[in-house]
Amino acid sequence: MAMNDVRGIQSQGTIATVKHYAANNQEIDRSTINELIDERTLHEIYLPGYEAGVRQGHSGAVMCAKNQVNGAFSCQSPELLQNILRDAWGFDGFVMSDFNSCHNTVLCANNGMELELPVSAFFSAASLKTALAAGTVTQATIDEHVFRILRTLIRFGVFDRPQTMTPIDATGHGAVSRDIAQQAAVLLKNNASALPLDAKSLHSVAVVGPYAGAAHTGGGGSSHVLPLYTVSPVAGIQNRVGPDVTVRYAEGIGTGGPPAVPATALNPPGQPTVHGLLGEYFPNPTLSGTPQLTRVDEQVNFNFGSGEPAPELPVDNFSVRWTGTVTPPVAGDYVLGMTSDDGSRLFIDDRLVVDNWGTHTATTATATVHLDAGPHNVRIEYFDGTGGASASFGWLPPGVLNDALQAAVDAAKASDVAIVMVGDNESEGRDRPSLALSVGQDELVRAVVAANPRTIVVVKSGAPVLMPWVDQVPAILETWYPGEEDGNVVASLLFGDVNPSGKLPITFPKAGGDVPANTPAQYPGVNGVATYSEGVFVGYRHYDAHGIEPLFPFGYGLSYTSFRLRHLAVEREDGQVEVQVDVTNTGARTGAQVVQVYVGHPADTAVPEPPHQLGGVLKVTLRPGQSQHVTIRLPARAFAYWDATKPAFVVPDGTYRVFAGSSSRDLPLSASVRLRGVRA
After folding, report:
1. Residues noted as catalytic
2. Least confidently predicted of 416-430, 496-510, 621-635
3. Number of structural domains in the chain
4. Which sign, positive or negative, has the C-alpha torsion 394, 361, 97, 131?
5. Neighbouring C-alpha atoms within 13 Å toward the C-beta of 632
6. How far apart are CA 664 and CA 596, in angstroms?
7. Inter-residue contact 396 to 316 (CB < 8 Å)
8. Across the beta sheet with 529-531, what order do the strands follow?
9. Distances (CA, A) of 27 to 352, 360, 424, 522
10. Which residue has the higher pLDDT, 31 or 399?
11. Residues 473 and 455 sit within 8 Å (Cβ to Cβ)
12. DSSP run (H or E) holding 164
């Protein structure tokens, strides 16, 4: 993918920049985090994408990352920039920094970085002259950097043509966007052929959820762009079903959190006749030292705005701890929520139940918690950084729906079918606090399916999400971030104009604790260090090696038709392994299947290996009853591991198992092939 992406960009005379090199894997402490990654893991897991973009794609530029790798900042690392990028991969373009990622003039200049962004601070004329005068950077080094930049610009003809703005073909680009999103969508569940829907048999459709009213065009940060047009899901579905079918829309989730817990349910510590919670206000954001102010607050429902919470406290960088008890009016499952700007945490009986910690604008986090009758200890921690400040502790008692959720339930009850659209909005600069859907989306799905069992869930996420309601709904469609054509994309898939053919490029776990990096030392790190102790056992390799059952496995994806693979044959061919298999469409609709080939290493391989690893894929489109004989060629690298003693990729001598199927957990065919040990 990286290779073809680079080639496509550069075919238009534009320089493609491969970034952020390397292992730019978290946003928390992204400018300082030191990632400890062993050599084998670095070369097998975190470098191949960059390598493909550079060696096969011939990218003109590389952007070095903010983070440290093994003790060296990426933009100052001789191992990354010189030994690997230039010496091993033969990169002859120029290296630019991510914003504010150069920290030392001499180290950046001598170790391979050409261009500092966003402005020249360490690479300013004054800084470089000082280094020249001190003899820590030579004129030859500076000349080489200039040469690399100019050579790349000349290679791409930048000086040979006028740099003019060209009009964007919105219609043509929209068609491409629609096709990409349709092919990327993954059908995760489809019990009793709940999909595709038949518009001719419907009188009404409920379209609900926070991602139903507007197109989800992408996440935030540097990748965010303003589209020339958008098609909302409501509009796309209405256009598809026509004017004779009623489409009812409800957002289902209010813009704020649950209503504030009333004072009558709250008591300060040891004061059962007083209503409210004890608030301890600190003149710092860390809840440390002696409180500057202590008082009883009837509710935790404050909007301090840009002012101070009390004259004794600063406008910014303060924190509050509220303690006491909360007594529910009835026993049952309560939706508890914290809405805050910036961070907040809610503890019930000393157990963290809502974690909304972090620097952010007003954000709601919720959890469904069973509360027995009687008082429960409650502790709320809150801090404000800079800018606005607000904090609210709210709940929805059992059987109580907020107005927005009630509107969604009413729409679902009144309709033949309900379509719930949930998801996330990932962005540069922040990490998701968990894999759970935010702001009551799980409660929305449960409420809608209880109102109408014929409920379809459309997930729009950039990564895996937890699905505690997976057994309650008949069909689930993952559409990622569909782009400007969102509404048309979703409608075409739900109503069968397009047969879903996407496969998961990631694993969806059943629980958050199932993921490979599940300790603080691994992520987000301890004392500024993230230790990649999982090694090469990431993604499906982790789940397979440890026998953990995923919710949906890597490579998985259903179709509105069915396929059968037969007659697997494996042969050595000119340093590669040629895998052949017959694919048949055994269903009643035209559809596409992605044939996946995995490799299992010999049992006596010198390093630990997962049961199998993806070696190659091929997508084939077939009419009903049609068969096709397909060939997938696996390069030597597919059988290799990184031997740090060489150092190089090596193929161990031995007998390998080759598997073919439709996901990492569905591999019905296998064969063996004997290979001699070589460097890959």
Report:
1. 98
2. 416-430
3. 4
4. negative
5. 26
6. 8
7. no
8. 72-73, 68-69, 34-36, 529-531
9. 23, 13, 16, 14
10. 31
11. yes
12. none
Q: Which two tokens stand for residue 596?
A: 């996946």
pTM (two decimals): 0.84
Q: Does residue 547 fall inside a structural domain?
A: no
Query: Are 322 and 279 contacting, i.e. CB atoms less than 8 angstroms apart?
Result: yes
Residues 102 and 124 in one domain: yes
- The runs of H, that is alpha helices, within 402-467 are 403-413, 441-451
Q: Which range of residues forms the domain containing residue 289? A: 263-396
What is the gyration radius of the CA atoms in the chain, in angstroms? 28
**Do β-strands 246-250 and 204-208 pair in parallel, antiparallel, or remain unpaired?**
parallel
Token pair 């050595």: residue: 572
Those residues with Cβ within 8 angstroms of residue 651's Cβ, 6 or more apart along the chain or in another chain: 636, 639, 640, 675, 676, 677, 678, 679, 680
Strands 389-396 and 301-305: antiparallel
What tokens were used for 89?
Answer: 């991969």
272-324 pLDDT per residue, tens: 999 999 999 999 999 999 999 999 999 999 888 767 788 889 999 999 999 99
β-strands 455-460, 475-478 pairing: parallel
Average per-residue pLDDT for the chain: 95
Helix, strand, or coil (residue 556): coil
Q: What is the pLDDT of residues 498-548, one digit of tens each?
A: 999 999 999 999 999 999 999 999 999 999 999 999 999 999 999 999 999
CATH number at residue 183: 3.40.50.1700
Alpha carbon separation from 351 to 299, 366, 403, 440, 654 (Å, rounded): 21, 14, 29, 20, 52
